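Hello K.,

You asked for the raw outputs rather than the summary table, so here they are, unedited. I folded two proteins back to back in the same session to keep the settings identical. This is the first:
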Amino acid sequence: MTRVFITIDTEYSSGLYSGPGPADRAENYARSIACITPSGPAGLSHKLELLAQYGQKAVFFVDPMPALVWGVAAIEDIIGPIIDAGQDVQLHCHTEWLGLAGSANPLASGRTGNNIADFPLDEQCEVLRFARDTLIAAGAPAPVAFRAGNYGADDDTLRALAQLGIAYDSSHCPALNDGECRISLGPEHRDPLRHMGMIEVPTGAIATIGGGQRHAQITALTLAEMLAAIRHARDSGRESFTLVSHSFELINRRSLAVNRIVRRRFNGLVKALVAMRGVETGTFAHNPPPLPKSSMPSEPLPASPVRTGMRMAEQLVSNTLYGAL
């Protein structure tokens, strides 16, 4: 069996933060977590209901850092429904919230930064300990997996996580080699591997025309590309494949319009996995990504001019009709 990990970074938006009051928190929740639109909710409750309908599992990487400005209750409102639905909660961390926390910043230095890798090892340990403890205080089991906000981790992040007893990291995105991630792995590292005392679980990728890679994110690939990538992983003998989404990706958070193209991708993915032989969805809590049995690195789904052309057309329509997230 190939285990597919549908990972959903579940987070309030620091970019939409307008103040510490309850009305401001409620507005951010409505736009970033619940995704309330005139057509109905397209966020957390929609995804949980869809997963339940088709009997599938997902991993919700929840960011507890907004508790610095809104308290633990803001995180309880996210974690409660996920746990009640029998889904997996793991740890996410956007350090941008430190810049909004004022005197609540847990670092004695008062240091702020956009990425966890912006901090020295000792302060990374402090931030991640605060994030882990807050996640647990909000009702989650002790996390065993982590993903950095913006993928912005480095090797010290992995050292800090190992000190905290967190076994898995999924911050390395091989297709975004010029992104915020500073972990000392390259675009060729596409399979789970031991690194810096952790098991690193790279996000999925497909090959692109010209020799590059494109990340396996709901907003970046068509449904046909995602399903082809999963079939390729299965047929190549890969034990796991990791997809990325966000709590708010099915809408435009500013206009509150449902992005029907992206929603069709997500809904179609969950439904199609039910009938796909040799494939199951997994969680880090109960059946985490195994290390590959083969020492040979896997190859991504080969580039296809037809699939690429269809994606470019679909993205154009999506951006034209619905705009940026």
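The second followed immediately with the same parameters:
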Amino acid sequence: MVYVRAKTVKGDKYLYLVKSKWDSKKNTSRQEIIKYLGKASLVKLNDVPEDYRKDPKILSFLTTHSGENIEKNQKLIDKVKKELFNGLTKGDLDRCLDIFESFEKTNTLNVFYDSVLKPIMYKIGDLWESNELSVATEHVSSNIAKELVSIITERNSILKKKNKILVCTPSGEEHNLGCNVIQSFLQSKGYTVYNISPSAPTESVLSFIDDKKPHAIFVSITLEDNIKSGQRLVSKINSEYNVPVLVGGQAVEGKDYKFDGEIIQNQLLEKIPRIIKQAMK
């Protein structure tokens, strides 16, 4: 496995392209430096050996740590957001797919969801609430977004024997785009994901937990009207099962609601696997 490692010296970050190799004698992995790339703020994609320039992990790392790449990529993200907004509001699924496929060539799946799709859907919701967007256009946009995520999920899912994750919403919550995005990202990382959203009755959720025995549960809440229902669902799960429950969604962003489970706010998708691992300890 090849990746970029950062080393901080006197406050400045320096990047190395390294390869992880398994040492069978010591029963551990060791790092082998392929190339010293230089000071993070000055590193360009062309500094990476050509064989590794299209690696998604390397592209993602450089986007996060290289000053030039950050500025360049932000301009791309702003451009793609405008294009995808137009595609969604016009109900043009093919155009939206083309936009995603082009973006994916230089960015990772989590960046598309976190930095492009999520802010666009928030914008569409805000425009609808302020009567600047019709109900019909909002519905069309949401449905196209769900279809887009569904297609991306099918294309990017990989089969690995990782932990089983249950994704659900409380009774009454009919919005599940967030659940679909979580499913899409985790399946791309090799998790087994059971997405039973939207609005499954509490007893159905509990019965499903009995049957599948997931290692962790995500509860997504989009509307504040469903907070109490979500609190009841989480409390019921915790009273009957010893399984970590993670709560997220637009309704809890920036709020101080109390849940028996761990609340996830303003977390990037790439952090979710680590959160799951910590919650399961």
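The chain has a mean pLDDT of 89.

Happy to rerun anything if the numbers look odd on your end.

Regards,
P.
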